[in-house]
Design a protein that fits this description.
heterodimer; A: alpha/beta; Rossmann fold; six-stranded mixed β-sheet; 6 helices; globular; B: alpha+beta; PH-domain like; Helicase, Ruva Protein, domain 3; 4 domains; nine-stranded antiparallel β-sheet; elongated; Rab-GAP_TBC_sf (chain B); acetylation (chain B); cytoplasm (chain B)
């Protein structure tokens, strides 16, 4: 069974601009268009490559999502627990993603919500409570929720585990939908691992 | 009339006269040559075919029909093709234009190969390639007869079918240099052979004398400095002269047939324009075509080296002997009519071309075609070709472009100069303002100074608009807060690796912020958008002045603003044009993108949005920008730059079967690994190749073209920009 899983998982990170990727050094630049990093993640004794996509945050670039979100396995919605607006916008991002990516089964498409920057000011400047965030996640079809501090490295690995786990859900489902006849063919897994078909 | 023009000879207006004379002269020597060919029974016509035509352009009215002949003269077999006189009067070619295309008694020792084309539809044609690698334009046999032509040659010359291509016939493939020497130097017929070519340098000179108008002195000075030549429109000629016969290089194996045809077409039309005295100043195609052709032709280069070698070793030596013993001249002249040093109409030559005459003459060696490749120039040329980009424009050269009051006399020449070499960094502050359009080229120092001060106070007023927003007011001004927040976030991640912008509390970062915020009030509808800070950063770095940076940015955004339209219309139109250009210029790649669902070209989004700012190191970005801003070859050179980069990556893209995602990653990671000069040369070449077809790929109004004026009247920016 595990051999059937896809080795490469495409993950789209969305959220209000400036809250997303600040963790990567002071040299980083605002993303223009789109770019992605890859990260190896071990999940259930298997190695996966997470392709983590960052797209230009500003609203006027959202129409590009059609191309960039295509084939995504998971969408991670990030907000800043210290900025209410970023939380309020989660729903916009989610809907925008569903419009642009138009996944085959929008109801069950795997999202993960991350509340970031819990470290800021020792948590004193926090304006979005965990409870509030979890409530929203529950209302949107039990979206998994995790809180992180990218700066301090808190929960980051856990976040990737959650992301991988959820991304794999689509992977398996899609596999069954698209390739029912080739599941047991030995070469299929090889094909998938090299094919990067997402 | 001719009288009048003679008065002007010392200066510039002799072209008409000289060309008139030239043509009659050509005609005259033509007939005298013919009679000389038929002289003491040595010359014999082996083959003669009427209605053999050249098609210098795609216009039917501009085809040149003529007669193709094979002539035996002593041991030499010669090929001639002479256009009919007086025919196609409605065509755009004058007699002298047509004569430029004539093939005058080219010995087969100089011909490397003949390629035969027998399309199922249309006329048969042959392309004759010289030993140099240069080729004549295709000769179309309207009445058929290619087979007979080749058969005749075969009877007299060693002709071998190429193993690689059954339609290519190699001439004298054993290539015996001795035989060549013999043909060139020995005996009486050599003199006659030379006779055949005597008119060539005259054509050359007639042609090159056209470039004597106006700012001859300055140009001379520039030419001296830069080692290239310019025509009357300020266009550069790496060659002594652009002779149509010279440039039909057919051996550029890296190009596909379609591109070849494009190239040929574009060259032909540019040449036509050049010849026919229509001084279209914005057509720099000529010199480029040569470079393009050259570039794609390793074989040709090799061949040319060989040719140069021959010149050095053989005939040039001979010519030098001639010079060193001038007393030989008259006799030589008598029996061979070799006249490069003593032209038939020496007055004209001396007046305007003596400066370059020597090179023209040196070029006028014995072989008909090659008089144009002067060996001295050749050395220069290989430099030009090896390093086609010029050194950046420096201060000394810059001031030669200015008149006493600071006007730029010839903005076209300036833009061209910058196009080919950019400028030294310390010149940017001054010159960028012209390129961007802040200052008009014909403004004086005083006018500019005044404008700067006026604009400075205008800037202050704009800046105060947001500076006067108190914290209290800001609370009720979400749009302002958001905008400012976005700008604040972006300026601290803009070029922070540069010392100019690094560190905490860097005043230059605040400069970026203030200018961007002021701009978002100056153009409230467009506002601020990610990417703008990238565009502003080099401007501030160059201008080092808030107000001036602001106004330069304003000018830049007049062209690039649509990149940031909310509906992305500006980006989409450019990406669309790009896809059309790739379809035109690299159909395999286009097909690949099509099959792999990549035709949206979003992987080039960053390139276009911020003009490759993230793809090159800082200095290179500035160089690229100033080249793009000249709008010298095209307003849309950046799209050709895209094509050029993609083209270089094509084999990798297709080889690795990249899908959209891996393509995007691959493209992003090219950043810092692109050779700007090479890409600019490619882009330039592609732009020329594409010619009008390329222009047709780019819809009017596509950024960075200025918006179509009507549209700005009716266009409600609120509709699509927020």
């Amino acid at each position: 069974m595990p051999s059937r899983r896809r080795a490469l998982l495409k993950v789209i990170i969305l959220g209000d601009s400036g809250y997303v990727n600040k963790k990567f050094s002071n040299q980083y630049k605002a993303t223009i268009g789109a770019d992605f990093l890859t990260k190896e993640v071990q999940f259930e004794d298997r190695l996966f490559t997470l392709q983590i996509w960052d797209t230009a945050g500003q609203e006027r670039f959202q129409s590009l999502g059609v191309a960039f979100y295509r084939g995504a396995d998971c969408c991670v919605l990030v907000y800043d627990v210290n900025v209410m607006k970023s939380f309020d916008n989660l729903n916009n991002w989610r809907e925008e993603f569903l419009i642009q990516a138009s996944p085959s089964d929008p109801e069950n498409f795997p999202f993960v919500v991350i509340g970031n920057k819990i470290d800021v000011d020792g948590g004193n400047s926090r304006v979005v409570s965990e409870k509030k965030a979890r409530a929203w996640c529950a209302s949107k079809g039990n979206i998994p929720y995790i809180e992180t501090s990218a700066k301090e490295g808190i929960n980051i690995e856990d976040a990737f585990q959650v992301i991988a786990k959820n991304a794999l859900k689509t992977g398996e489902e899609e596999e069954i939908i698209y390739l029912p006849d080739t599941i047991d063919v030995g070469s299929s897994s090889q094909q998938r691992s090299s094919g990067c078909e997402c | 009339m001719r009288e009048a023009e003679y008065h002007d000879l010392s200066d510039d207006a002799d072209y008409a006269a000289s060309s008139q004379q030239g043509s009659s002269l050509v005609a005259r020597t033509d007939s005298s040559k013919r009679s000389s060919l038929h002289e003491p029974g040595v010359a014999e016509i082996l083959y003669s075919m009427d209605n053999v035509a050249m098609h210098p352009t795609r216009y039917a009215s501009e085809r040149i029909r003529g007669r193709l002949k094979l002539i035996r003269q002593g041991n030499s077999i010669l090929m001639t093709w002479i256009p009919y006189k007086g025919q196609s009067s409605n065509g755009r070619f004058s007699e002298e234009d047509k004569n430029l295309y004539s093939i005058r008694a080219v010995p087969f020792t100089d011909i490397r190969s003949i390629r035969r084309h027998t399309p199922t539809l249309g006329w048969q044609y042959v392309i004759v390639v010289m030993q140099s690698g240069l080729a004549f334009p295709p000769l179309y046999f309207y009445n058929g007869g290619v087979k007979q032509f080749l058969a005749t040659i075969k009877q007299h010359v060693f002709l071998m079918r190429s193993a690689e291509d059954a339609n290519v016939f190699l001439v004298n493939d054993f290539h015996n240099p001795l035989q060549k020497e013999e043909g060139q130097q020995g005996g009486n017929e050599v003199g006659q052979q030379k006779t055949c070519h005597t008119e060539k340098p005259k054509i050359t000179l007639v042609y090159s004398r056209r470039k004597n108008k106006g700012r001859e002195r300055e140009r001379e000075a520039r030419e001296e400095r830069n080692g290239y030549k310019e025509d009357e429109g300020g266009r550069m000629f790496p060659f002594q002269v652009l002779h149509p016969q010279l440039v039909w290089l057919m051996n550029y194996p890296l190009m596909m047939i379609t591109q070849r045809m494009l190239l040929i077409k574009s060259f032909a039309s540019s040449f036509r324009e050049n010849v026919s005295q229509r001084r279209k100043h914005h057509d720099p195609a000529q010199d480029l075509s040569i470079q393009v052709l050259e570039k794609f032709s390793l074989v040709t280069r090799f061949a040319r080296d060989t040719t140069a070698q021959i010149f050095r070793d053989g005939r040039v030596g001979e010519r030098k002997r001639d010079q060193s013993s001038p007393e030989h001249h008259p006799s030589r002249f008598e029996d061979s009519e070799k006249v490069p040093e003593v032209p038939v109409s020496p007055d004209r030559l001396e007046k305007t071309s003596s400066r370059k005459q020597s090179s023209g003459e040196e070029a006028a060696t014995d072989v008909g075609m090659f008089e144009l490749i002067n060996f001295k120039e050749f050395d220069k040329l290989s430099l030009v070709w090896g390093k086609p980009r010029q050194p950046p424009l420096g201060h000394e050269e810059w001031i030669t472009f200015l008149d006493i009051e600071g006007r730029i006399v010839d903005s076209e020449a300036l833009r061209k100069r910058i196009f080919y070499g950019g400028m030294e960094h310390n010149m940017r502050k001054e010159i960028w303002r012209f390129l961007l359009g802040c200052h008009s080229y014909d403004s004086t120092y005083a006018e500019r100074e005044y404008l700067v001060s006026v604009k400075k106070s205008e800037y202050e007023i704009l800046k105060r608009q947001w500076q006067s927003i108190s914290a209290e007011q800001a609370k009720r001004f979400t749009k302002f807060r958001e905008r400012k927040g976005l700008i604040d976030k972006d300026v601290v991640r803009t070029d922070r690796s540069l010392s100019f912008y690094d560190g905490d509390d860097n005043s230059n970062v605040y400069l970026l912020r203030d200018i961007l915020l002021t701009y978002s009030f100056y153009n409230f509808d467009l506002g601020y958008c990610q990417g703008m800070s990238d565009l502003l950063s080099p401007i501030v770095y160059v201008m080092r002045d808030e107000s001036e940076s602001f106004w330069c940015f304003v000018s830049l955004m007049e062209r690039l603003g649509p990149n940031f339209n909310r509906d992305q219309s500006g980006m989409h139109s450019q990406l669309f044009a790009l896809s059309k250009l790739v379809e035109l210029l690299d159909s395999p790649l286009h097909n690949y993108f099509q099959q792999n669902d990549c035709l949206n070209y979003f992987f080039c989004f960053r390139w276009i949005l911020i003009q490759f700012k993230r793809e090159f190191e800082y200095e290179k970005t500035m160089r690229l920008w100033e080249v793009l801003w000249t709008h010298y070859l095209s307003e849309h050179l950046h799209l050709y730059v895209c094509v050029a980069i993609l083209k270089r990556c094509r084999s990798k893209i297709i080889g690795e079967q990249m899908d959209f995602d891996s393509l995007l990653k691959y493209i992003n990671e090219l950043s810092g690994h692109i050779d700007l000069d090479a890409i600019l040369r490619d882009a330039e070449a592609l732009c020329i190749c594409a010619g009008e077809n390329g222009t047709a790929c780019i819809p009017p109004g596509t950024p960075p073209s200025l918006p179509i004026e009507d549209a700005s009247i009716y266009h409600q920016p609120d509709a699509d920009i927020l």
